[in-house]
Amino acid sequence: MTPELDPVIHAQARLRVVVTLNALAQGDQITFPGLKDLLGMTAGNLSVHLSKLEEAGYVEIVKTHKGRTPVTYVALTRRGRLAFEEYTAAIRELLGTAGTPAPGDT
């Protein structure tokens, strides 16, 4: 049986976001502009993908101020880390079966 890939993470842009956030230590966060620059995405595109990840409970977005300047921080949640671990395990399993004939194909 082919493993299921999480459709929330599987979209290329969201996968790039999750991979980048997963590289941070648990509990660490990055500013929205920093993440945008790292990924080379537009603010609008990143916002759309972060919203989908936030709806799934995979990222936490905190809006605050540094002095008078608004700052938005993004972090991967525990649930997001677990989902990414499950996603990578499913990919490994899928790749491990590559080249193996399906039952009845011999």
TrEMBL record:
<feature type="domain" description="Winged helix DNA-binding">
    <location>
        <begin position="21"/>
        <end position="95"/>
    </location>
</feature>
<protein>
    <submittedName>
        <fullName>MarR family transcriptional regulator</fullName>
    </submittedName>
</protein>
<dbReference type="InterPro" id="IPR011991">
    <property type="entry name" value="ArsR-like_HTH"/>
</dbReference>
<dbReference type="InterPro" id="IPR036388">
    <property type="entry name" value="WH-like_DNA-bd_sf"/>
</dbReference>
<dbReference type="Pfam" id="PF13601">
    <property type="entry name" value="HTH_34"/>
</dbReference>
<dbReference type="InterPro" id="IPR027395">
    <property type="entry name" value="WH_DNA-bd_dom"/>
</dbReference>
<dbReference type="InterPro" id="IPR036390">
    <property type="entry name" value="WH_DNA-bd_sf"/>
</dbReference>
